[in-house]
Amino acid sequence: MKGITKHTLALICLLFNLSLMAQVSTVTGDGRFYSRDDDSLSFIKKQLLANAIRDVFTKEMKEMGLDSDKFWRNYEEKFQAYFDKVKSGLMTKHGVTEETAANNSDYQKALRHERLRLKARYGRISRALMQHSINKMSRSPQVPNSRYIRIKAKVNRKELHKIYLSFTSEQTDKHYSSLYVSGDFNLVDTSWSEIGIEVESDFTDVLKNNWKDKIAASLQGKVDRVVFVDSAEANEIKKFSGLNLEAVKQVQEENEVASADGEVAVNEDTPLSNDYASSLWLKLNFKIKKIRENEDAKRRSFEISGDLFLQDLSSQKIVYFTDFDEMEKDYSYEDPKNLSNGLANAVYQIPMSSFKSFERSIDGAKTHLKRVTLEVSEYENMADLVSLTKFLSNKGVTKQFSPMIKSFSPNNAKIELEYSGDDQDMVTMLKSLSGMMIDQESKVFFPSADNPFQVIVKRNAKQEARDEGATSQVGKQQKGRRS
Q1: Which range has highest mean pLDDT (9-23, 221-235, 358-372)?
Q2: Model pLDDT, residue 372
């Protein structure tokens, strides 16, 4: 231990983290799918790839020491909860009930297609796949609808680990009932007629309808619905977001008080929706300024700028904010329709990249991880500490255990352990590890059953005997050389 410097420790920890989390692994995966005669080739290929990717990820999780069975079980449960809403919509569309659905062939066909189509992309788990190539794709000569594919894929283990946590972590994912969207379009030195339209809604409604689909896609599974609001409701949301947290709780409690006849008593002085407290608010602000006009060429130039912010109304925190880069656009006003379409398209594109960042921003806004310090009072060498951190990471994956060696000496080391969730659950999990093998040579123990923050690493008896034997043999060889 004396020969190991802090620089060496940093390098060891860096190499460990890289090997554990950021490896790119190449693996083969097999996928099978039993198609129907009316399935398109593109649909069949997507199903085969989805099943092959599932096989690839299963193999990788097992290689990483993760519980693949638990992951896929949670994945199926979450997908089913998501698909239940889709199924309800299909039943309404086809006019069927639970009793009549089985006999409606059109409904059953649509149900199967939507289930398979959505499941193939649910959770965007394929983002952990860096690249893949198809080695083989075939169909059975005896059973033509039986299809098979084999792929060779490169997997980003760091990304796969994140996906695993998102489906297995005991920390509850943040979910919102609604995303309310308000838009403010401010015209400077111009008018709607100069933009080529008669009324503002002709311009803004088209933008809102197209943005709505993109926003809903980016937050799939995070929000139940996306709602564009008018200025009146935007003011109500602003009023709600201006309350302090205690006032928000009070409003919720007052709105949930049941009256004697079983109805809900609403406080008329604070007519705020219960939904706001479990929702997001996206505010889009645009300024369209006319900066020049050439009457001879019949052209107008506009400067477009603005910003947006995304707010969690339950915590009143700003989840995402950005200022849009100013842009200048020049259009002919001989054809008002072309002018309005061109300007609308320019405005439409401005926030698109931000929409794609919403999901990550919401996930990043979750409660920060907690930290405790583990003191390791007995260990043989640095390899024991590295093995212990890897062991803790794998065993505590559902608690998002993230251990890091902070200091060490020949007789003592400190490991900082980040974790999520309930403190008592973390303590219980640590205690459950006592006596477990952390690798082929060592076990972890806690000197006090009531204190899992004091740790010792012990070699097993066979390994100690081998080490003692090797030491004894070296001693004999050295003695022989001296004599």
Answers
A1: 221-235
A2: 84
CB within 8 Å of 46: residues ≥ 6 apart: 117, 120
Partners of 328 in the β-ladder: 303
Note the pLDDT tens digit of each residue in 101-114. Answer: 999 999 999 999 99
Task: Tell me the pTM.
Answer: 0.44
Average confidence (pLDDT) over 378-403: 82
Of 361, 351, 308, the residue nearest 174 (C-alpha): 361
Per residue in 286-321, pLDDT (tens digit) is: 999 999 999 999 999 999 999 998 888 866 677 888
Q: Kindly report the length of the chain.
A: 483
**Span 127-136, pLDDT tens digits:** 889 899 999 9
pLDDT at 257 (0 to 100): 42
d(CA 264, CA 254): 9
How far apart (Å, rounded) are the C-alpha atoms in residues 337 and 358?
33
pLDDT above 90 (res 354):
no
Mean pLDDT, the chain, as a whole number? Answer: 80
Phi, then psi, of 33 in degrees rounded to 5: -155, 135
Exposure letters 379-392 (e unless 16+ CB within 10 A, then b)? bbebebbbbbbbbb
Contact 389, 403 (CB under 8 A): yes
Q: What's the mean pLDDT in 240-260?
A: 46
What tokens does 8 get? 């060496």
Judge whether 131 and 154 are in contact, CB under 8 Å: yes
CA distance 203 to 213: 17
Q: Is 14 exposed, middle or buried (0-12, 13-18, 19+ CB in 10 A)?
A: exposed
Q: Is the sign of the CA dihedral 344, 346, 351, 352 positive or negative? A: positive
Domain residues of the chain, as ranges?
A: 24-168, 176-364, 370-464
Nearest to 272 by CA among 302, 297, 238: 238
* Assigned token pair, 151: 């792929």
Identify the CATH number of the domain defined by range 370-464.
3.30.70
**Sign for the pseudo-dihedral over CA of 446, 433, 159, 212:** negative
CATH number of 176-364: 3.40.50
Contact 51, 32 (CB under 8 A): yes
